[in-house]
């Protein structure tokens, strides 16, 4: 069994974008404070780990997830570091290379999300990915000591230990968080995409084919979103959420295009899956796009920042996607997104105005909806 943990030299698009959009100065201002906190946490960790917990890697394991493999020569620990996602497979282009003939070339992916959860995503592998003996068909959040199976290889997932629960460790106060959170109020666009009639699909396909189809969809969705300057911020069952971070006050014309160009590519990819797999019907997706201010937080560390967005702008994007089912449309966008599109193309927009009532909101909310056919024609219009 061989392994290759060399991180990809490419900088994730969302981190490169953030570095260019006013975050560097603020991060540098907080760096000294972050170093002080990191030093405090490390000192507490060193004091807490006085017994042979596992191996020489034990101290690091308290602060980052690891994979534990059983090899012919004993245990091997693979730290998940240097990135926010790690691909697993036989191919040499993976972050973690496992020489298992029963594995696919690109078999699965582990992705660490903004709030610290680590998700397992099967990448459409032929023989599937399993968590505690159960085949994975949609991304699943991993728990400490979950047993992962790829082909004939078993790997144990070890989550970071909660330092506040380690004997001898004194929890830092609210004014001194163990992970330095960097929160900024930023203008963002949020895209939420959902596979339609997923329940019907689960009833129509056997588990193996379903897992391969959905795994392929998630893999391709992640690639498309990255190609258009964002990243998958959340997996929610059969849906994904992506975030584009804009300038401080306004959305540029090129920026407002990116979620919709990504959405068009997602629609095309989804509608063509039935040419590859024997599906009972062509797959469809629905989407909500919303633009507005939100708190963008760094929930990672000083060595590996990881950004996520929180707030009503994000919640509204999910509600817009849900609204498309009520309206019988493919896409729904919020008011600020609609106004950004008007700045780009004037009044020649395919979106019609609707009033929708969302749970928890006292008043109706405007939503602007259209079909994918309308979106395709719209994106072909000269700027």
UniProtKB/TrEMBL annotation:
<feature type="domain" description="FHA">
    <location>
        <begin position="86"/>
        <end position="136"/>
    </location>
</feature>
<dbReference type="InterPro" id="IPR000253">
    <property type="entry name" value="FHA_dom"/>
</dbReference>
<dbReference type="Pfam" id="PF00211">
    <property type="entry name" value="Guanylate_cyc"/>
</dbReference>
<dbReference type="GO" id="GO:0004016">
    <property type="term" value="F:adenylate cyclase activity"/>
</dbReference>
<comment type="similarity">
    <text>Belongs to the adenylyl cyclase class-3 family.</text>
</comment>
<dbReference type="GO" id="GO:0009190">
    <property type="term" value="P:cyclic nucleotide biosynthetic process"/>
</dbReference>
<dbReference type="InterPro" id="IPR050697">
    <property type="entry name" value="Adenylyl/Guanylyl_Cyclase_3/4"/>
</dbReference>
<dbReference type="GO" id="GO:0035556">
    <property type="term" value="P:intracellular signal transduction"/>
</dbReference>
<dbReference type="Pfam" id="PF00498">
    <property type="entry name" value="FHA"/>
</dbReference>
<protein>
    <submittedName>
        <fullName>Adenylate cyclase 2</fullName>
        <ecNumber>4.6.1.1</ecNumber>
    </submittedName>
</protein>
<feature type="domain" description="Guanylate cyclase">
    <location>
        <begin position="189"/>
        <end position="321"/>
    </location>
</feature>
<dbReference type="InterPro" id="IPR008984">
    <property type="entry name" value="SMAD_FHA_dom_sf"/>
</dbReference>
<dbReference type="InterPro" id="IPR001054">
    <property type="entry name" value="A/G_cyclase"/>
</dbReference>
<dbReference type="InterPro" id="IPR029787">
    <property type="entry name" value="Nucleotide_cyclase"/>
</dbReference>
<keyword id="KW-0456">Lyase</keyword>
